[in-house]
Each structure stands twice: as structure tokens, then as C-alpha cells.
Amino acid sequence: MLTEERHQLIRDQLAADGKVLAGELASRFGVSEDTVRRDLRELAKAGQLRRVYGGAVASAPFAAATLGQRSRHAVEEKTRLARAAVGLLSAGQSLFIDGGTTNEAIARAIPRDMELTVATNSLGVASALTDLPLVELIVLGGRYVPDLGTCVGADTLVAVAQLGADLFFLGSCGLDVARGVTAFDSAEAEVKRAMAKNSAGIVIAVTNDKLATAAPYRVAGADAIRHLVVEKTAPSATLADFQSRGAQVHFA
Amino acid sequence: MLTEERHQLIRDQLAADGKVLAGELASRFGVSEDTVRRDLRELAKAGQLRRVYGGAVASAPFAAATLGQRSRHAVEEKTRLARAAVGLLSAGQSLFIDGGTTNEAIARAIPRDMELTVATNSLGVASALTDLPLVELIVLGGRYVPDLGTCVGADTLVAVAQLGADLFFLGSCGLDVARGVTAFDSAEAEVKRAMAKNSAGIVIAVTNDKLATAAPYRVAGADAIRHLVVEKTAPSATLADFQSRGAQVHFA
DNA sequence: CTGCTTCTTGCATGAACAGGCAAAACATGC
DNA sequence: GCATGTTTTGCCTGTTCATGCAAGAAGCAG
């Protein structure tokens, strides 16, 4: 049995069942589980499936899976970032918070006794804030994009234009010193730009994998970032670049 | 059974029923309750559900609060109403859906393969619809009112004014033949009136306890109701009054 | 208050895992 | 044909992960 043959059969079963078990594949192919695990590792590296304990599941057939997958990834890190980011807040401030799992974690980390005004176009962030009694929540409506978990479009832009905020928590973006803050979607970038324009300061909290990456649509230059919240393990050279552009760096 | 599989099944049931019971999941999955609780803890940490004593509920804001308090016993009735109400839909329609637990149940009851355009000012309804691939979701933003679970205010009215719908699912109101459809809050009533004005037909699904009751703020007259979805046990005298005003009565 | 259920925490066990190593199969060059 | 290098594979070793069990804490009902 050829390696490539096994890979194809694994892909086939994933397409059919949505999952595969390492042990089951091993006995079906007549090879050891180690070999199967190696196959799964390779396919996972190629992004064709997602490795889980005991086997693997289809990587991202549905949007829900994508969002769920992203949010399960690096939960610990994002919670730590969120706690550090919340430390930047003071009572009575008004905020823009846009989409992304890190921003949702930040919303969940806001203490119950903090008085804030928050405007968000992310349903996840909004949900997290509904329980907080002292938060005045303004939902920025518009066309909802499942992949992003946020509302975008002309209606959203109009709603943003009528508001101002002390801080803008800008999420789910690429971050590169030369190219600045970038987004993956045109409409999403527009909303981010509008929020940035109406905010006194921008806060970005990112995991290491977002650092030194860029996406197609430019949102703002690196010098627009006031606070940058990163993991302790973030490469210091990159951080120094951002600091020289005026960003305060906070370690989670 | 993969851990990942259980998580997905839990998410599925939450999307369908709005709640899960730890013991019931344990026996269904063939694992100990400890394992289920661990699953629930993880999903809660990722913000995908909300932990409650005995199990978990959907993290949707309003659903959690009300499922906990106001209508724990009426869940089944509302699910039945929802199924009947969904029967009034046809593919390609556009809808307004406002707030209330009954409307959230209706949103959850919409089949995955139905193509619709839905505009809502309820975060609970919006959350329930985010998973449906064929639903174009428009969020009507504005100032969020935790008690209602909906957005209201001038921004919301502006957003509503730009849209039109075939049907308007009007929720959480008092219903009386003489006083018509009434709401408990002034701003809420304004939004409902705006939605009613821009809709071709109004659908109201109510449990018996809402029948023949009235709230302070008038939304529409009884003759504006096109479809009335009620429990089988609803008092026929009251229903006859509504029918004489032009409403079609549907039993759940 | 009392008794019951549910929940969290810590722990032990077995399964699943990654990395290193060596043998076998295969290809390549002389 | 023979030697050499590469790839694939299975096995071994220590590590990580998932799970069930037990004990104590917390929540709920009467």
C-alpha cells in the first residue's frame, strides 16, 4: 500500500464521515498506528485535516467549525492576553471592540464592577457583555458575516460614524511594522478604519502567530498603535520596532 | 467516541434545544458525568456555552437569563409554538424578528436548508441564526437593553426604516382584542411599530398566559395580525375575537 | 437545619502521542 | 552486480492527554 494511497483514503473518509480514528485506520490499512499517525501529521501540516486526540476531524468544512476551531486554539494564551488588556481600562471609558476570538476573550475578562460604554459589531463580544450590569452596550448592526462573526457594510459604517471612543480594541488582523495593521476582508477593513478614525487610541492584543504577518487590506500604520499586548515569548526584535513607532508594549 | 465529537454534539444540541443536561449527555455518550462536566467546562471557557447547575445553556444572552428564570417550565410549549410558526415560512422570504424567548425558539426551529433574509434587533435571535448557512442575517443595532435582550433607540429605528419584510414575528407582548398588541417599554414599542409598518404581514406566537393581557404601550390594533399561533389549550372565545378581526389562527 | 444532588479538585491508570533509532525496501550511480 | 543514499516503516522510550474514581465543597429542595 502506497503512502499516497493511504492519504487519499483518509481524505475520502474524512469527506464522508467527518472524522477518522488512528487505530481503525491502522487495522484497515494493515500498518502500524505510528505510520497512520505520521500520515495524519503530514495531512494536518498540509491543512487538509485537523488533528485531535485519537484521530482527526475534517478541518473546516463549515464556518462554525472554523470559528470554533480558532477559538479552541490557544485558549490559554488568549485568556492571559485578555487579562493584561483589561488592565488598560479605567472606569467610565468608552470603547470600540471589533471581532475576533481574542477580543471576545477580552470582553469576557472585563470585571463586573467596571462601568464602561462599549460599542461593538461582533455578536460574540456583545453576548459576552450582556451580563455585565454596568456596561452600556451599543450594538453596531449591519450585514452579518458568519466567517467573521461581525457585522459590516454601509449600515455599520454609519453607526460607527456617530460614535467616538477612548480606546479601540482592534482584533483578528495581521501585524507587521512595515505594512502596519492589516485585515483579511475588504468590508471588515473599512469598519476597522472607521473605528480607528473615531478613537483616541488603538489597542491590539495578539498571539505570537499574528506578529510579523500581513493580510491584504491595510487598516492603519504601525505608528497608530498606542498599546500592544503580547505574550511573554514574543520576539523582542519585532516588539522594539513597534516601540520605536510609539507603541507601549504590555506583556501578558 | 472522540472528545471533539462530543463537543460538536453538545454544540448541536445547544443550538437546537438551547440547553443540555449533564446526566443525560453522559448516558447518551456512554461516558461518566465527570467527563461531560469537563467538556462543558472547556466549552464554557471558550465562550461557547454558559454553565448552569445541572448542565449548560446556550451562551445567547437573553436565552440564558430567561431559560433560567421566567420560563423554565414553558420551554416545551414554546418549542411547539415555534415549530408551528416555522410552518408559515416559505423559502426566499424576508423577515423581521424582534425579541422574546418565543421568537428565539422560532429562530432555533428554522431548518438549515431554508433560504431566508432575516433582520432582527434581538441578540438571542441573531445568535441562533448565525449557524444557518442559507440565512442572510441583518443585525439591527442600537442601544442594547439587557432586560429585553434587544436593541432599541434612534439607530435601530433608522436601520428598520431602510428595510422591508414579508413577515414580522412580533414577540413578548400583551395581546388583547380591545387594546390590540401592546409592549412593556416605550422604546421597544417604537421599534415594533416601525417593523410592523414595513412588513406585509404580522405573525404573533404566544403562550396562553399572554392572551387577554395588555401592557402600557400600544404597538398595533388587533386587526393588524395576520397569523396567530397559539397552544391547543387556548380559550376559543378569545381566539374567535381575533379571527373576527382577520387573524388566521394556527394551533401548535 | 438536613439530606440530596451537582460540582470541583486531585490522583491513578491506560491510551495516544512525538522523537529517535534501526531494519527493510527502494532508488541511484558506478 | 554492487555500493551508496534515501524513504518508509515498525519498534522503543519518555511524555502528554483523556478518563474514571474518590473526597470534599458548593448548591438546591424540603
From TrEMBL, chains A, B:
Residues 3-58 form the HTH deoR-type domain. SMART domains: DeoRC, HTH_DEOR. One of its GO terms (molecular function) is DNA binding. It comes from the Bacteria. Keywords: DNA-binding, Repressor, Transcription, Transcription regulation. This is DeoR/GlpR family DNA-binding transcription regulator.
